[in-house]
Amino acid sequence: MTKPLSGKVALVTGGSRGIGAAIARRLAEDGADIAISYAVSADKAEAVVKELKAKGVRALAFKADQADPAQVESLVKQVAERFGGLDILINSAGVFVTGEVGASANQIAGFDHQIAVNVNGVASAVRAASRLIREGGRIISIGSIVGDRTPFPGLADYSASKAAVAAYTRGWARDFGSKRITVNTIQPGPIDTDMNPASSDFAPTLTALTALGRYGRAEEVASAVAFLAGPEASYITGATLNVDGGLTA
């Protein structure tokens, strides 16, 4: 049986760990050739590439700093050149910096870096992909439920960065519509990763806020991405899908 993404090329930024790695694995299972990017951990990236190749697809890792627009543009171009095209762009790379307004002398530096990665990095990747992604392609960004609401102090900057991604998604859906390229955002809730482990001291508070009473798994986010990347989601664009266990219900 032909897999739904056979013959497709996908780039997953931040694909060396956590949600990004889970997305890369799932898209490979669905038949796509996979490029992943990483910022610092070459060993982790190569380990993921090895897993992907074992699934019978082509896979490569590329080092790129998402805060640097030139590196992001080069990344997208390299992927299209090495794989012979680009069909799916997954913007998964991101950073999480907290702090109440005025609380830290280093806050502006942290703010600038967070915006550079979470907003500018996504925008740079999409702009580069706009010249290369094939008709009928898919662009999916990983946002956060705090893009819709900010339930705790210290999240304002992070919330704003993710809200910007959702707003861009709605606008880009219009820009890409004539090429039948869909653009969507997935907003995870509490997901068990090294960035936000279910074993943390704060985890019980987040768990209690969900309708399902548990943290999510990276694979559950990846399943939502796989649906939006596949042929059955061809009429969904400009949408935001919360994968949050009912936290925002």
From TrEMBL:
PROSITE patterns: ADH_SHORT. It comes from the Bacteria. InterPro entries: KR_dom (IPR057326), NAD(P)-bd_dom_sf (IPR036291), Sc_DH/Rdtase_CS (IPR020904), SDR_fam (IPR002347). One of its GO terms (molecular function) is oxidoreductase activity, acting on the CH-OH group of donors, NAD or NADP as acceptor. Residues 8-194 form the Ketoreductase domain. Gene3D superfamilies: NAD(P)-binding Rossmann-like Domain (3.40.50.720). Belongs to the short-chain dehydrogenases/reductases (SDR) family. This is Oxidoreductase. The lineage of its organism: Bacteria, Pseudomonadati, Pseudomonadota, Alphaproteobacteria, Rhodospirillales.
